[in-house]
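Internal tracking record. Fields below are filled automatically when a chain is submitted to the structure queue. Please do not edit lines marked as system-generated. If the sequence contains nonstandard residues, flag them in the REMARKS field before resubmitting.
Queue: standard
Priority: normal
Entity type: single polypeptide chain
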Amino acid sequence: MSLKLIGVFGGAFDPVHYGHIKLAQAWMNFASLSKVIFIPSGLAPHKNIVLENKHRLEMLDLALNQHANFFTDDREIKKNRNDFQPSYTIETLKTLAREKEEGQALCLLMGSDAFLKLESWHLWNELFNYCHILVVERHESIIHLDQLTTLLKKEWNKRLIQKIEDLHESACGLIMVKQFEYIDVSSSQIRDAIHLDKNLTHLVPEEIADFINLNQLYR
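SYSTEM-GENERATED OUTPUT FOLLOWS
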């Protein structure tokens, strides 16, 4: 049976930008994802979030409204409102796994820089029990085996695949690595551009640039 793949894309989205959108679109096209869920971080152990949650969510909604199969999921922000504890990806995946329908599989989207630091994540080796991991390699950040720790290399050797069909035939536990031609831009780069009053049109969708200017964000 061919499983429907659901992309799970976590991040600060502070702010959301073309790099996020184009990367999700590239994976959707390449791996035939049925949809991508964007999950903005609440209190994130590895991220220094600048903007308040309300504005990050509003911008994410604005950006994703243009894409029928992209959705915002605010569960980590809601969790942080309730208990002020860090949001861990493993906990989010567990809840998503309980909610998904039969015949669906979760695919966690991340960059190669995040993958190389995977062992610093809470209960990192349990991630494979709930999802596949799809890693995008930046041209300047290609993964080499000698960069992997002993434990991560063991998972890499056991789980790495080349064929999309393998993802659609397995419920979880695989790793796929791919390079895409997409806009490589960072949120910090955008915040720097705002401080220097530079044009944002090549970095973020027009509606996001307008929202930032209207609300005088990152000033």
